[in-house]
Q: What sequence folds into this?
């Protein structure tokens, strides 16, 4: 295992330290728990947004803590849900009197722990709501999930719910717009190579030299199938056929598009994929309103990518366009 | 070779197409050459900034074209200098009447071709100056270079010279501040794994399972030596010893810091490296004014990273803090 680490057991702790060194004006850490919150938390009169999940998906989620997006990110061990205790501390730290929305990716452990924390906070009299993101159309259930998995599309939920909360909206309104995003959000990914969880020390699965996995999850969970490597155009078409048919996205729809690298795929290749996605969408007369190409939700050093489409209306466009200032997502 | 591409011969062309699909409000492409310029080019009354180099270093350099940074990026084939013709077209396209500054990374081919283009543009009566970035302290000469190589520190030259040009400064003033950055800029990198140029189809070098290369260049050019893998703390100390001693950076200096991923190294590991760099600097009483952690100048899917320090004064701090709005570098 070739990794830029000191000790496999200390990666999350040391990563958080490095994160705080990098962004002292944006972030602070809560005492005794791996929870990162806005420097200014709690923001009075604003609904607090809490997300998080296993580590290994950086910049998700700590990179999205800041103005216009999240208030707190709970960092679990690599590919492991944060504990109820962590999440409970996060909720308390960011409640500015208007309640807290939990944005949960749909994994069994995450949902269980976030909901347990919600109950704990409610016993303290804090208003807490939750939304569960399940944008991955690849498989209906998976290794760690009942129902569909939550993957990179979650970043659009952070962005849009974050903008709504920043406007001073009430908890119910923020939840409602987050639900609207989730309802109109579809993603799917694939991988060329696996990744290695530091504490495991070896790849979580193997792929032959000419083999790819379609529909893989962000923890390397199996997708729909494996096949021989093929061109970017063919790979994109396979993912897009499934994504577009699912909602479905229709003629003249306007969408936000994310082409998300899983870790080791060069940006140049993500742009080639973006070309193919755009040409595919032109063929369907689906209009791209705004595009995001880069590493938004990774899977350590996995090589591969995912595509996310979000169907937009005027409200979602305005919230997507609102300014944001976080370590990993800035918009002027 | 497992890559998200269609045809190894078409990667740059298709990447540019994908780039333009992603950032239609930021960028436009010149006819018949792989040159990307600001949508608003030329900007009247502003010195034009032109950079570029081989492709494969994304987001460098096209990702830095926009307000507060570059006016044009010339995209060569992968790891190959752009042609004089390309650069000449870029200069003509961004000259807003105040002249053009070329920001060249020190590689023999790049320097030759940028200088040839400079002469061509001067014959047209355009005022052109140049600066050559040579921040890499690893080796004095290398495979493609007389003198030191230009690597990730180049992004600080783009940022600071870009901010100066945006203020309406004259060509000589922009050149002068770029020279000041270069004089105070030092970088060094290392690699865990090689990368594969698409047209070559196989890795440009090999490293054993437990072997790393110290001082490697961004095209996989040999560094100072190979050694057995060691901890992040030890790797950082080895790079920092050489960087800090070189300028030298001294007690009570203020610096900008960049921890730059070369392609496949997870952001979590870059943050661990950032922790080590900061702790090293605390030990030397060198103060970090601002930190950048991420993929700023890559080497396709190489695993590894580089560290850059820039010694700051009040002028450089103000220019570094100025707002910027480009596809890959945004600052509010």
A:
């Amino acid at each position: 295992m070739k990794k830029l680490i000191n000790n496999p057991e200390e990666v999350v702790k040391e990563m958080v330290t490095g994160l705080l060194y990098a962004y002292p004006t944006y972030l602070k850490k809560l005492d005794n728990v791996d929870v990162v919150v806005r420097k200014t938390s709690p923001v009075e009169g604003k609904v607090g947004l809490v997300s998080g999940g296993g580590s290994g998906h950086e910049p998700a989620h700590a990179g999205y803590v800041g103005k216009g997006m999240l208030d707190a990110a709970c960092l679990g061990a690599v590919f492991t849900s944060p504990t109820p205790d962590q999440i409970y501390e996060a909720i308390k730290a960011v409640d500015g009197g208007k309640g807290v929305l939990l944005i949960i990716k749909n994994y069994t452990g995450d949902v269980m722990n976030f909901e347990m924390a919600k109950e704990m906070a409610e016993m303290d009299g804090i208003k807490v709501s939750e939304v569960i993101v399940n944008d991955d159309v690849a498989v209906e259930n998976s290794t760690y999930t009942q129902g569909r998995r939550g993957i990179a599309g979650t970043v659009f939920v952070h962005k849009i719910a974050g903008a709504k909360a920043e406007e001073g909206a009430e908890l119910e309104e923020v939840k409602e717009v987050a639900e609207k995003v989730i309802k109109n959000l579809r993603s799917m990914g694939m991988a060329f190579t696996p990744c290695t969880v530091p504490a495991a020390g070896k790849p979580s699965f193997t792929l032959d030299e000419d083999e790819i996995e379609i529909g893989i999850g962000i923890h390397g969970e199996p997708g729909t199938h494996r096949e021989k490597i093929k061109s970017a155009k063919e790979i994109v078409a396979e993912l897009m056929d499934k994504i577009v048919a699912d909602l479905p996205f229709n003629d003249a729809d306007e969408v936000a598009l994310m082409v998300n690298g899983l870790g080791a795929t060069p940006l140049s290749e993500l742009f080639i994929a973006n070309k193919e996605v755009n040409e595919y969408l032109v063929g369907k007369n689906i209009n791209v309103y705004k595009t995001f190409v880069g590493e938004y939700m990774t899977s350590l050093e996995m090589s591969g990518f995912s595509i996310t489409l979000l169907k937009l209306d005027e409200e979602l466009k305005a919230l997507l366009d609102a300014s944001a200032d976080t370590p990993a997502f800035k918009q002027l």
